[in-house]
Structure formats: C-alpha cells, structure tokens
Amino acid sequence: MARGEHSPACARRWREQAATQGWSLWQTAQAVHGCCGVSLLKAHRLARGWSARQAVEELERLCEVHSLGLPRASIDLLNAWENNRARPRPQTIDQIARLYSANAVRLGLAADYCDDGDSQKVVVVAAHHAVPVEDAFAHVPRGPAAESDDEGERRALFHQALLGAGFPLNGRLLAEVERTRQDMDRTLASATVSEDQLDRLDEQILRYRREYIKSAPLPMLYRLMLEIGDVRRLVSARQPAVVQRRLLNATTMLALLSADALMKLGDTRQAHAWYGTARAASDDVGEVRLRALVRAQEAMLPYYYGDLTETVRLAREARMLAGNAPSSPAALGAAAEARALARMGEHQAARAALAEAERIFARMPHEDTDHLAFRFSERRLQFYRMGTLIELGEAAQVQEWISRSASPYTIDPALVLLDQAAHTARHGGFDEACGLAEQALTRVPPEHRTSIVVTRARALLSMIPRGHRRTPAARHLHDLLAESGPQLALERR
C-alpha cells in the first residue's frame, strides 16, 4: 500500500455500498479512486476485490482464451503501473482494457480531450441522494457503523504502534496522522458533555503537557492521536459556549503538542498543517493569549527548518496579540524574536528583544515549579538567552550552563550546543565545532535523536570545507551521524 492510500477495508466498504446501490464496476472504481487515494488503474482492481496476484492470473486467463499471446505482466510490474512508477506497453494497455472492460482513459493511462461537455457525466449514488461523481467524494455521507469501523481500525493501528518494538514509522501511520488532523479540522467547522468529563479532559491535557517535555516524540505522537480521536467525538456536536470553549482549548493544546512532535521528527509539512489546526481552534475560542501562544509556538518551525524572517513575523504577531500584560506567550514571542534576529545578524534589535523578554518575565506572576510544555519558565528563558548570546558572540556562559543544567527538557542542552557549534564553524573553528556537535548528539538518548537534532548536526558537517573533513574530529562526527541514520525516517532530503 503506497503512502497516503486508505486501507483495503475502505475499498471493501465501497464494494459493499456498490452492491447495495446497484452500481456498475466503473462507478465503483470511480468511488474507490476518489476516496482511497489510489490510481484509476488500481481502483479498477480494488473495485473487483482482486489481489495483484489474482489480477495477473485473470489477465493471463483472458489472453489465453482470446489468443492474445502471453501478457507481459507480473505482480511487480502491475504494482509499478498502479503507482505510476512505470507505464505498460500499448499492447499490454489493450489487454488490461479488455480485462477491466474499460478504455485507456478510464484506466488513467491516457488523457481525455473530448469537448462534448458533461453530457455523459457518471453519477455515483450515495446513501440517500445522488451527486455528480466529480463532487461525490468531498463529503460522502457515511453511516455511523462505517465511521465507527474506520475509527476502530485507526485506534488499533496506533495502539499497535505503541506496543510495537521501536515504534516503527511507515506511510500508513503518517497517512492516519494526516486523516486524524483532517477529521478534526472538519469537526471544528460544525458538541453533550458532563462537567466531570471536562475536568478529566483538563487533567489529561495537563498530564500530556507535563510528560511531553521528557518523552520521545514518536510514541507521544501516537498517544496524542488517540486522545484527539476522543476529543473530536465530543466536539462533533455543538455544545453550550462554555463547554465548547473548554473543548476547543483542549483541541488547541493537543494540536500544538502534535505539531511540536512532528517538528522534532522532521515532518515539516504535517507540522505546519497541525499548527493550522491549532490556529483554527484557538481563533474559534477567541481568547487572545491562546491565539498568541499558537503563533509563538509556530515560530519555532521556520526557525529550525525554514525562513528566519517568518520566525520574526510570527513572534511579533504573538506579542501583538498578547498585549501589554505579562504572559508566557508575550515572553516567548520576544525571546523567539531575539534568537532569530541574532542569527540574522541584527544584533542591536536582538539585544532589545531579549531585554524585553526578560522584562516581561520579571513581571509575570510567580508560578509553581511544575514543568509544563508551553509554560515560559526560568529554564525556558535561559534556553533562549543562551541561543541569543551565542549568536551575539557572548557564549562564555554556555558551557557552564550546560554543565550544571538539570533541565527536564531533554534536547535543550543539545540544541544549545548545536547553536554554539554552528557559530563556531562560521568563524573557522571547524574541529571545535565538530566536537561540540558530537557532544550534543551523545547527550541525547537515541529515542530523542530525531531530525531536529541530527539534521542540524549534518548541516554543520556540510559547512566544513572538504580539506578539513578528514580530521579526526570531523570523521568522528561523520561516523556518529551514520549511526543515527535510522532515526531519520521523516527527514526531508
């Protein structure tokens, strides 16, 4: 099954509906193609319920009966054709068209240049109404039983991933992460919950925020997907305003945690999409500090993977939304802006932003010592201060801070060391930079050594001139990065 495709159970449900509604095989193939994310060629096979082996056997049988010669087809070739990695020969296309009672256009193997309009539009009949096939798949009504089966399969998948050794990552899991986010986005557009349920949900969100700062991102992502499925069902029916606000607040926090986990894993596309979900939920709540928090947290994504000017824009938007009252989003926005400006070389503006972050933090009400994700604590301020000072060339305090740091944030010291390594490399200290990067990697447990850490270490290695890459320090770093390869399943090359 290729990445992004639905499970075979989805095509099976379409075949069952087709049998009930009396659809033709062509209508069923269109339904499977429109819903399941497969090619038209593969949709024809799934519409018949055939495996790839069965399809090849049926093709061989057809060619034998009609004396068409031995078909040049195999399971591997069929998979390549169905996933657009190769194209069958014209003679083979004709044989497949006979097999599926179709033509090259309906197989997706030729373009249709007819100019006779939509007079022959095929209609796929849903449960209670008919819609043109072009529109049939955007919001196809599905019965409660089908939706329940789909959700049950999804939850079983994430439970299996949690129980599996090493939490293996694959396209199916990524597709279900994406579908979970899309389901939540659809639900936000449209919830009866007891006070006790809401209190338990709030407690669970706090528990996730507490555990997140020291948990490996991949298993945490799977747990978040399970929780989001539960919350989505509560939000799916409109609730009284007070209840809805609490549910949307929980949705925002869960989406932020998911986006941050995906950012650490290096999947910038899905991280960006989950930040969009968090933004939609927080905007629906309408509470400015929550909206500011989303923008401030989202600013981290372009800082580590994208455009620093976008980090500055989001950080300033967060500060504007947070207003004059001292708060975590306001302090985080100023600190994030300072770190980005320092890396961009705008040192005076960076010093001013850092001073503003420190002023905001000094005015914030005292909070308990509980460490929570998205709470701007003294340790968070110190982390951003170190990153800013490194870029300002004032890194004398960094090693001392790292040596005595007992931060609950597992990767913070490693990220600071990598900032220092990059700054050192830009000023010609290549061996020292490699040593700092190696120190950063060895500080991080293997389950936390994900793309956000390893990609930056690789970028550092690429900064080193070829003439210096044979030094012992550079070779040690290269070997360590080679050992870290399996953790980079999501890295965008």
UniProtKB/TrEMBL annotation:
Protein name from the UniProt record: Tetratricopeptide (TPR) repeat protein
Source organism (scientific name): Sphaerisporangium krabiense
